[in-house]
Design a protein that fits this description.
6-stranded antiparallel barrel; 331 residues
């Protein structure tokens, strides 16, 4: 009888282990990290170049070399990186994970999103797999790969978790927040989930006394949006309204808000003026989608092109009105 019970116990343990992948307390995702790094490393490149003399960081007392990181986007040599990495480079050199170097050309740049596309004359590269923001969950493990502090440290990897999504910093769009260590030179490198898919492009880190683990990445959905415009138009075509607006006090401090966006100026002859928008009007929604911050508005604009029409829900003197706007394009 005892041997029968022992047999049953062993069968149960066997089923549990092979059904769930590991005993209780073990993490299969943690065990996957070395493979994720190994698989992705050929898709991560170092970027180095000499600063233009016109750059504000140029110094006659240094070699004026600056560096960053990039992610292989297409096998025929297209690489995505941060705009601030390459914007002031007089020459751009890409170093692959195997140590081979190639001169690169700047194909497109968009400083508002801080993204750029460069190209090397080399085929057979391994493109990174891009994920989707709808699958990103706060608390999930992530890995950052890049070139921190020194070019000799290229393809260094750090690990952390997603600390938050839809974060507002000083950019035009929302960011992913993580606590993966990101340092100078990591800019333009990938933030990777446990499926080995790129979910963000690392761009900025908060530094200061008492500040730790505040790293920010451009969400992959924004990356896809910008790349699609690069491919179709060679630049990002944004809808132009021709009005400036400010957020409510609560939104400015990061608090929940329903105040909307108050118009502070309207350009003469602009789409805003033609639609009848006035100073002190409060924009509440775009095509029935509420907007309470500038980032809300910018994120919503990713759906539209110059020439598209939308209905703005506007509060004026305590009354709600709807105004149709046909967006223009600012060159």
């Amino acid at each position: 009888m005892k041997s029968y019970r022992l047999y049953i116990s062993l069968v149960i343990i066997f089923v549990l282990v092979f059904s769930f992948g590991a005993p209780v307390g073990a993490s299969s995702s943690e065990a996957d990290i070395p493979k994720i790094i190994s698989d992705l490393s050929p898709s991560v490149v170092g970027i180095i170049g000499k600063l233009k003399e016109s750059s504000q960081n140029y110094s006659e007392y240094s070699d004026n070399l600056t560096f960053g990181t990039g992610v292989v986007y297409k096998a025929n040599g297209f690489i995505i990186t941060n705009a601030h990495v390459v914007a002031d480079m007089e020459t751009i050199v890409v170093v692959l994970s195997n140590g081979k170097a190639y001169k690169a050309r700047l194909k497109a740049i968009d400083e508002k999103s801080d993204l750029a596309l460069i190209k090397i004359d080399k085929g057979g590269l391994k493109p990174a797999k891009f994920g989707d923001m709808s699958d990103v969950v706060v608390g999930e493990p992530v890995v950052a790969i890049g070139t921190p502090l020194s070019f000799s440290l290229r393809n260094s990897a750090t690990k952390g978790i997603i600390s938050g999504i839809n974060r507002s910093t000083d950019g035009e769009y929302s960011f992913i927040q993580s606590d993966a260590a990101i340092n100078g030179g990591n800019s333009g490198g990938p933030l990777v989930d446990m499926d080995g898919e790129v979910i963000g492009i690392n761009t900025v880190k908060y530094v200061g006394f008492g500040v730790e683990g505040l790293s920010f990445s451009i969400p992959i959905d924004t990356v896809k949006y910008v790349i699609s415009h690069f491919e179709k138009y060679g630049r990002v075509r944004r809808p132009y309204l021709g009005a400036d607006f400010v957020e409510g006090v609560a939104a400015r401090y990061g608090l929940p808000s329903s105040e909307g966006l108050t118009i502070t100026s309207v350009e003469e002859g602009s789409p805003a003026e033609k639609a009848g928008l006035l100073i002190d009007d409060v924009i509440r929604a775009v095509n029935n989608v509420p907007v309470t911050t500038k980032i809300d508005y910018n994120e919503e604009m990713k759906k539209y092109l110059p020439g598209d029409k939308v209905v703005l829900t506007v509060e004026r003197n305590g009354e709600i009105i709807n105004l149709e706007v046909k967006y223009g394009e600012k060159q």
